[in-house]
Amino acid sequence: MLPQKILNVVKLSRNNILLSQQCYLPLSTSALLKSTKEGDGRVKYDPKKLKEEEELYGMKLNKDKSVTTDDYVTENNVRRPFFVVDIDTFKFLHSDFEFTPDGIKKYVSNKYNDSQRDQQLVKMERVAVFGSDIAAAYFVLYEEGKIKFKHSEEWIGINKNEDDLLPNYFDSTYILTELDMNDVVLRYEGLTNFTNCPRITRASFQRSPYFDEWFADRLTHLMPNLQYLDLSDCPKFNERGLEAFYKLSNLKTLIVTNNNMSAAFELTCMMLEDIIPGLTIKILEPKKKEEGVKKNNVN
After folding, report:
1. Which domains does the chain have, with CATH numbers?
2. How many CB atoms lie within 10 A of CB 8?
3. What's residue 85's pLDDT?
4. pLDDT tens-place string over residues 163-186
5. What are the tens digits of pLDDT across the range 126-144?
6. Of 16, 50, 120, 237, which residue is the least packed, with the fewest Cβ within 10 Å?
């Protein structure tokens, strides 16, 4: 069996949590802290319990809520840790990071995806200035999509100067009704930009790489008046996503791709047409990928 002193040190290490860049706070059951006054929320060390802990663990506990050893330095009569680790570094060192080429590539990819999700989150200050419809239009143009407003036949795209075509203030006459986000890498978090835009009637998300059943369910809440929806060549879309569209009672045209060539997908489309009156679903076959390189004919 391990000596009692080692077991005590292990016990102390298991009862510590990292608070900030400086120190650790012991969380043992011996109740080192007690209230100075009832209801004031402030705490301090009990000197008697502090001394008992020092004798028990063979270590010195500071009044600045840190655990120190003889290797720690002293500055202005205040003992501080010799080595300081901030919370982000602490999380990184305790993560499942692999110091291999594949591990580094995976870490960089995850960081990039996180930054893209944060970038596509709705900007509430933009909504407060422009309103929901114009703010959503700016988001679509920033992601290189196209939009169309009510009573307008002209598509507004990234190839035009949106500063001249969109107002820089709130205007209730600008009502977003159609959007074209083909080939746009739209994240799930990006859908929050269409909050309070229920008058969108036509939407196209062709070749959207992340559009799946979660997207479909969120879309039915954000755009309940859709009449035309194009989800062709979305690799992650399946029959589970189709099941969410029963809520779109005004839907007239739906274009989808049966990526897995499954009978369940076609059966779900037939059931959806029975549930929604006047709905027509166009099922496309997945495009075949070119295998290999074409060889030149040798005469």
Report:
1. 4-93 (no CATH), 101-284 (3.80.10.10)
2. 15
3. 54
4. 567 888 899 999 999 999 999 999
5. 899 999 999 999 999 989 8
6. 16
